[in-house]
Write a structure and sequence with these properties.
It is a single chain. The chain is mainly alpha-helical. The chain has 2 domains: 59 residues, no CATH class; 38 residues, no CATH class. Helix content is 68%, strand content 4%. A hairpin with an 8-residue loop joins strand 1 and strand 2. Helix 2 packs antiparallel against helix 3. The longest helix has 32 residues.
């Protein structure tokens, strides 16, 4: 039951795609093509996201992240999250996050 609850959104999307395929059989190919394209794009982006997040975790001190993006960061934290970067790391260069990459 916990597994179903965890993946309920994905299951709902697959069921809705199947329902649309049954209701509109002429569009079945387009539906499948779109689903396959979306999965391929996710699979191609996710490894890069994991690598960049791992590097950011190693090189950006946790205190800096909490300071600029924690509960008390207010508007600055929201702007930094939208822009997709954190302040200078301890090595003196900007660390770019992967949020904007998912928009591309």
């Amino acid at each position: 039951m916990k597994l179903v609850k965890r993946y309920s959104f994905a299951v709902l999307m697959v069921l809705s795609a199947v329902l649309l395929g049954v209701v509109f059989p002429a569009k079945r190919g387009v539906i499948v093509d779109n689903m396959v394209a979306n999965v391929r794009e996710m699979v191609s982006i996710i490894p890069a996201i994991f690598v960049l997040l791992g590097l950011a975790d190693v090189y950006v001190p946790r205190e800096t992240v909490v300071k600029y993006m924690g509960e008390k960061s207010a508007l600055i934290g929201a702007l930094l999250a939208i822009l997709g970067w954190t302040p200078l790391s301890r090595h003196g260069f900007l660390e770019f996050k992967v949020g904007p990459l998912s928009l591309a």
